[in-house]
């Protein structure tokens, strides 16, 4: 059931908390209008979140909690949250959190701060969760304005020790070749050596997939390669499970938004490396990248990455963003790193105990010299 509450008759602002798939579908046009108007990232788009919700494997163990603020008949804010279960606890978190590199809200300039704080309070008062945990917060995330010290309602959120770094390639280069020339001698040699190794196996080609090319064969190939990589490292991911629909749904959301860019490196027509990227805010963002381990001696993943960095610069993009993750290759090529913070707050006694235990573990790690200074 959705809840609508009048805040102030003079402002005509009212609140709603979306809990059903039917209501989520019904607000698509309003949400997408706000997304375009605020120049939001794809992670906060209706297309992205509905793609995830319609394909997530454990939807029966989750609950939508998407806060809305309306001004008259115009949607002016979206707070996209869900409740999920992990380790015996119920978490209030970002919708599609597993696939959202930058978590945030959408808010129009005319939306009042009191309305944002009230919709947060309404979500918290409705309950159904033990801990609120919002991560992947950029320094300028709009959601930060809700969690100010003077907030009168809802759970108080404090900084959490969990942080990630978004590594990026940013600078002023006249061309991709100029960027390549700035790399170390060893890096340039490794690139050329890898290209030569691939050429010994067949004709190689770097290319951007055309908009009208079928996507499913590429996604099938990428998923198969990614599963091999995961098995070798004894890891799992629902995103790449055979027959799982979520990857195709998210990529379709990127395609329909007009931001999708898929780069491939081929050897005799076979894809030896694939990178699913998208372009927003004058930035090339790398969502998923993988390579064929049978060609690992040539480092095809590195070759493809260096190729699409050069392509991005040649096409006037100011930044290549590797998004979340601390893989060594990202640090190697990055010229800057942005720290993504997280906030946490407990609603129940069980949540408070779990949060306290987590803080104590961090203090022990700090004492032993194996972790950062705890901030909470």
Automatic annotation (TrEMBL):
The lineage of its organism: Bacteria, Pseudomonadati, Pseudomonadota, Alphaproteobacteria, Hyphomicrobiales. It comes from Mesorhizobium temperatum. GO terms for molecular function: transferase activity. Keywords: Transferase. Residues 185-330 form the BioF2-like acetyltransferase domain. Pfam families: Acetyltransf_6 (PF13480). This is GNAT family N-acetyltransferase. It comes from the Bacteria.
């Amino acid at each position: 059931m959705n809840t609508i509450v009048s805040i102030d008759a003079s402002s005509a602002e009212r609140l709603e908390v979306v809990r059903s798939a039917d209501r989520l579908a019904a607000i698509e046009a309003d949400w997408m209008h706000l997304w375009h108007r605020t120049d939001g990232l794809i992670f906060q788009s209706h297309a992205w979140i509905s793609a995830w919700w319609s394909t997530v494997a454990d939807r029966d163990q989750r609950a939508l909690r998407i806060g809305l603020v309306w001004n008259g008949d115009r949607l002016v804010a979206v707070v996209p949250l869900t409740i999920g279960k992990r380790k015996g606890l119920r978490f209030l978190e970002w919708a599609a959190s597993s696939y959202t590199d930058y978590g945030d809200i959408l808010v129009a300039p005319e939306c009042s701060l009191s309305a944002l704080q009230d919709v947060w309070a309404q979500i918290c008062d409705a309950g159904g969760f033990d801990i609120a945990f919002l991560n992947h917060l950029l320094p300028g995330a709009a959601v930060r304005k809700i969690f100010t010290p003077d907030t009168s309602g809802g759970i108080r959120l404090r900084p959490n020790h969990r942080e990630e770094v978004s590594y990026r390639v940013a600078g002023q280069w006249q061309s991709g070749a100029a960027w390549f020339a700035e790399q170390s001698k060893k890096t340039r040699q490794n690139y050329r050596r890898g290209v030569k190794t691939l050429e010994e196996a067949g004709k190689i080609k770097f290319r951007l997939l055309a908009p009208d090319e079928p996507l499913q064969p590429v996604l099938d190939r990428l998923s198969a390669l990614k599963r091999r990589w995961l098995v070798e490292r004894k890891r799992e991911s629902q995103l790449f499970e055979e027959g799982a629909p979520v990857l195709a749904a998210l990529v379709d959301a990127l395609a329909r938004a007009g931001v999708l860019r898929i780069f491939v490196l081929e050897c005799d027509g076979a894809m030896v490396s694939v990178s699913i990227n998208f372009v927003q805010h004058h930035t090339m963002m790398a969502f998923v990248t993988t390579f064929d381990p049978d060609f690992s001696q040539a480092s095809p993943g590195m070759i493809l990455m260096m190729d699409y960095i050069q392509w991005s610069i040649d096409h006037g993009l100011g930044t290549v963003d590797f998004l979340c993750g601390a893989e060594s290759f990202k640090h190697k090529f990055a010229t800057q790193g942005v720290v993504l913070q997280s906030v946490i707050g407990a609603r129940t006694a069980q949540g408070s105990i779990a949060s306290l235990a987590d803080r104590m573990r961090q203090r022990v790690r700090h004492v032993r010299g194996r972790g950062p200074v705890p901030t909470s």
